[in-house]
Amino acid sequence: MRRFDEGRNAEDLRRRIRPFLMRRLKSDVMAELPEKMETTLYANMEAEQRKVYSAVLLQKQASVQSLLERQGLKGSRGEVLAAMTELRQICCDPRLVLDTYTGESAKLELLMEVLPPILENGHRVLLFSQFTRMLALMQPRLNAMNISTMYLDGDTPVKERLALTQRFNEGEGQLFLISLKAGGTGLNLTGADTVIHYDPWWNPTTEEQAIDRAHRVGQEKKVQVIRLVTLNSIEEQVVLLGARKKKLFDKLVTAGEVMPEKLKTEDILALFRS
Fold this sequence. Notes:
alpha/beta
């Protein structure tokens, strides 16, 4: 990647690696798989949430710019990631950052609006979030709506993971709440035909691996994928960055599951635009 200018000399690189590389898309080798439909829904922050987000964004813009100037990206990676995470958490629900917050979360309200009709129509859902605390915040609202849920995260023992998977595929539960890291691989959940990504991340391969828990051999129904994105926020920038990375991935015909992971300084600064 370094020698070929991060993909800008892609044709020459493709020519050199073609004798050593074979890539097969899932659609090529598993033609029997049902269709996968993808939709993005946008949540618009109300005044109180927007006030919290704007205040934190202003603070992080200044601190990240200063860190990058003083320490460079390599020396400030941890602090930059923490700043990104805090803004993303506010998009999910400000209570992840501020315990005293009593206002609404636009995205949580959007989820509670779209989820009941999906379940009422007989669909069963996998809901992924990177934040286990966000999944916990959803639970009281889901209980109040009498939505039957199951839950899995990184602390769930292997034997229990397998048991939960089997129970769900046999028809127990309407909604499976799963942390993105724990649910990215190793689970067969074809009992679901709808996948909701509550919070986007810049590496689209991670999301695709989660979607593949349902869209895989054994699935007999069309699979609907819904991504929830907060308007005018870091999440929109994350989605754009992910799209650029995926384009580069496809352009280079990269083998396997690994995406280019080196973010540049300009990539980072773009995430903190207001």
